[in-house]
Amino acid sequence: MKRTASVIFFHGSGDTGAGIKDWVRSVLGRDFRGAHIRYVYPTAPWQRYTPFGGDKSNVWFDRQKVHIAADEESESMSEAYSIAKGLIREQLDDGIPLHRIIVGGFSMGGALALHTGYHLNTSVGGVFAHSAFLNRESIVYDSLANETDPPELCMLHGTNDQMVEFDWGRETYDALSELGVNGSFTVLPDVEHELTESSMRDVEQWILEKLP
């Protein structure tokens, strides 16, 4: 079947595209549904990551610490932006219209998806972010102040997340909502920093509704 839509799924820090694809498959017991959809699982560059003690890892960008009050590293983010733009360009070059491209991710990958859909390219078909947050002073909020029709958002977050606090995800969603973003915030009771079968089923259902 000809692919008429694309989903770009950014992994979390220290993972790979193959790793997150396998994780989705393990919790669902299968791949995401939608034979008409191309699911793209890119791998972040191997680079120095300060929260890992400066060791190198597969990360989309660097940051001084994982905390909502930390500053964004604009120089490092710009390199991640180049990757995200390139991935979208590949889909466009393959004939997929922009409104049929969804960007999403887990943890750090979810943050990059939020930057991609609400700062870099607000004409994508939708954004999902699992166990993710934006820094309080994020450039994303500045961009949205002038945006009239941002993409729909699907956010999900576990209440027992020890790495990315639940409240950070909720605060991010509320801030985006105040700036005109429509969407849903799914509370995952007793879930830690992880994908689950129910959360991936929710994401899959949302994708299939957005990309029929």
TrEMBL record:
Gene3D superfamilies attached here? alpha/beta hydrolase
State the similarity comment.
Answer: Belongs to the AB hydrolase superfamily. AB hydrolase 2 family.
Keywords attached to this entry: Hydrolase
Protein's name according to its UniProt entry: palmitoyl-protein hydrolase
Q: What is its EC number?
A: 3.1.2.22
What would be an example GO MF term here? palmitoyl-(protein) hydrolase activity
Phospholipase/carboxylesterase/thioesterase domain sequence ranges:
2-207
Matches recorded under Pfam families: Abhydrolase_2 (PF02230)
Q: Which domain of life is it from?
A: Eukaryota
First and last residue of the signal peptide: none
Gene source species: Drosophila rubida
Q: Which GO terms describe its cellular component?
A: cytoplasm
The UniProt record lists the keyword Hydrolase: yes
